[in-house]
Amino acid sequence: MPEMLLDVQGVTVSFDGFKAIQNLSLTVEKGSLRVLIGPNGAGKSTLLDTIIGKVRPVSGDVRYLGQSITRLPEYKIATLGICRKFQAPGVLDGLSVRENLLVACKRGKGVLASFKLGAAASERARVDELLSLTGLQGKAGMLAALLAHGEKQWLEIGMVVAADPQLLLLDEPTAGMTAQETAQTAELIRALAGKHTVLVIDHDMAFVELLDAPITVLHQGQVFREGDLATLRADADVMEIYLGRPKETPHAQA
Amino acid sequence: MNRSAQTVLIGVAALALIFAPLYLGAYSLTLLGRVLALSIAAIGICVVWGRGGILSLGQGLFFGLGGYALAMHLKLMATAKGELPDFMVYNGVEALPWFWKPFVSAPFALLMVLILPAAAAGLIAWLMFRRRITGVYVSIITQALVLAFVTWLNGSQGLTSGTNGITDFQMFLGINLRGESVARGLYWVTLLILGLCLAATALLLRTHFGAILTAIKDNENRVRFLGYNPAAYKIAAFALGGLLSGVSGALYTLHLGTISPAMIGVTFSIELVVWVALGGRSSLIGAVGGLILGNLAKDKISSAAPDAWLYVMGGLFVLVVLVLPQGVAGLLNHRRVRRTVPSVRREVKEVTDIA
Ligand SMILES: Nc1ncnc2c1ncn2[C@@H]1O[C@H](COP(=O)(O)OP(=O)(O)OP(=O)(O)O)[C@@H](O)[C@H]1O
Ligand SMILES: [Mg+2]
After folding, report:
1. Measured in angstroms, how far is the CA atom of residue A249 from the centroid of ligand 1?
2. How far apart are CA B184 and CA B133, in angstroms?
3. Which residues have CB under 8 Å from A247's CB, separation 6+?
């Protein structure tokens, strides 16, 4: 049996009585690539929020490498090797692109370890690697606030990958990207899978198709179907809730 | 303003300050020394607010702790052995309170000047940031705390001399504070300490710690989910801000020869913030310069037209909020202005959300 990296067991998340996620179970194998789709408000982002500890479930358990992480503080969950890209680009506006990546790839995250000037040679090398991975070499010295939307997405992907986490959670990584950028992102994510375990949320069917990975459909806070794209496209219920009235994506019309 | 122009300007200002005792009259020198002592608190505000995005309206609390720690020692030095400080006698206190006793020792008092404000700030920060209290709530809490401290001081006549404050100092470390050349010496010592605090803080802000502080101000969640514990960084920054305030308070007490609750209260705490805002809160030189020039101006204006002062300050604050969110330093440095616009907007939004 393949080793399970992430095991979400019967999780329910409630916002003032409204159940954004209901008794949801999901397992992700080590090294796999998994796509999560579902209509607006299906609970996709909330599921990621629950995994990283941003919201706490009222019942159920999130296990990572066999260990329950449901009650750990957020920064500890992150240091276990779970890193998430947010739906709205979450770069550090007041720092340069290089500094953003450096903050992300530092090993020691404690206050005492931070009283250091400059960066170690290994960290500099890692930052250079990430700059070329994300194609931002030319903008290393630029303030992150001044990047274009798509570039911010790439930078944040770079930051999420920086510390070499086992589990990457990517929430709509292609929002605001051109078709070409989307294709590049798909290629990048496929390259990351295997070495990392990747869970991607996206609305953009062209992108999901490029990823060519097993898909889980969420609907009203529950797992609705699992399968590959072709099977799901042939499924009338899925078409009804989701594919039948897809959310328009910026370049779907382009 | 480019880097070399900035270096020249700082160099000229430093020289002018170092040689000030040679060309300034007694009154002006005393005033300048006092203001320099005060400006050390501005360094702390620059770290805590300018870099960390935490607006404390209660820095007077830490300033006061540093000031009172030193004043207690000075008072005991000015009291004959075996006797009680004069205000305790007037208030019918019969024995020296336990927490006064160790302040007989100068090293202990000096240590307390550093430890008390830093520890108090650290503790308050721990209580606030562990619970993820942010924004205006922090401002309200810190303001309430300084108010509580001042109220306690005022009400505890026999322990703290109440509204009169502690005064009538004579000797410190074997030096007669009323001696002839003390003014110059004290001025230079103050300038030296200011220089050291500035250099050390500038260095600190250039480390990874400084980058993380900026990052937390921009997007605390992003930092948290990269595996950092933002609360720990904010506590460290706040404790440092408290420490610098305390040092400032102790030096200021030495300059003025007294410390009283009226000197450290809510108005004082807000005034500090206003000068830092006017000078430029995210620049060390801006913050310190704003405080020094602001206080020198205050001395001139309030002696010429005492009633006008509050209006002038209020007007300046409105000016800063509306047109100069990054102060004068921000005006001179475009990169900084751009980088902080979003965070200023966010702060304004927080305030309006609550209102
Ligand atoms: N902090 C919150 N407080 C209250 N309700 C929330 C909160 N976060 C999410 N919700 C609600 O929970 C539901 C699920 O939201 P979620 O963001 O997980 O959806 P999503 O599947 O990511 O949708 P989208 O495709 O629009 O990003 C929505 O109805 C949303 O309004
Ligand atoms: Mg979402």
Report:
1. 18
2. 45
3. A39, A40, A203
What span, in angstroms and rounded, lies between the C-alpha atoms of B299 and B309? Answer: 9
For A213, B184, B239, B306, the CA distances from B12, given in Å and listed in that order, are 65, 20, 32, 32
pLDDT at A249: 46
Interface pTM, i.e. ipTM: 0.86
Alpha-carbon gap, residue B332 to B327, rounded angstroms: 9
Note whether A42 contacts B: Cβ–Cβ < 8 A.
no
Running along chain B, 355 residues long, what does each successive block of 10 average in pLDDT? Answer: 81 92 89 95 96 94 97 92 89 90 94 97 97 92 96 92 89 79 90 97 95 94 93 97 97 94 93 90 91 89 81 81 78 56 52 48
Reduce the secondary structure of B73-114 to three states and give it as a string. HHHHHCCCCCCCCHHHHHCCCCCCCCCCHHHHCHHHHHHHHH
Sign (positive or negative) of CA dihedral B322, B326, B329, B335: negative
SS3 A120: coil
User: How far apart (Å, rounded) are the C-alpha atoms in residues A162 and A122?
Assistant: 12
Candidates B207, B225, B226; nearest CB to A116: B207
Q: What is the mean pLDDT of chain A?
A: 89
What are A59-76's pLDDT values in tens digits? 999 999 999 999 999 999
* Atom 2 of ligand 1, nearest CA residue: A15
Strand B175-176 and strand B258-259: pairing? unpaired
Q: Identify the CA nearest to A250 among candidates A202, A192, A214.
A: A202
**Domain range summary for chain A, segments of one domain joined by +:** 31-55+73-243
CA dist., res. A177 & res. A96, Å (int) = 21
**Candidate from B212, B335, B343 with C-beta closest to A103:** B212
Give me the CATH code for the B3-354 domain, please: 1.10.3470
Work out the burial of residue A190: count CB atoms within 10 Å of its CB; fewer than 13 is exposed, 13-18 middle, 19 or more buried: middle
What pLDDT does B123 receive? 98
Q: What is the CATH number of domain A31-55+73-243?
A: 3.40.50.300
Element (H, E) at A162: helix A149-162
Domain ranges of chain B: 3-354
> Is A115 near chain B, with CB under 8 Å?
yes
- Contact flag A95-B215 (C-beta cutoff 8 Å): yes
Name the token pair of B145: 């705390």
Question: Is A88 at the interface with chain B, CB within 8 A?
Answer: no
Going from the Cα of A41 to the center of ligand 1, the distance in angstroms, rounded, reads 5
A68 close to A62: Cβ distance less than 8 angstroms:
yes
Question: Closest partner residue to A74 among B219, B224, B232, by Cβ?
Answer: B224
Chain A positions in Cβ-Cβ contact with residue B206 (cut-off 8 Å): 117
Give the tens place of pLDDT for each residue, B222-267: 999 999 999 999 999 999 999 999 999 999 999 999 999 999 999 8
pLDDT score recorded for residue A72: 94
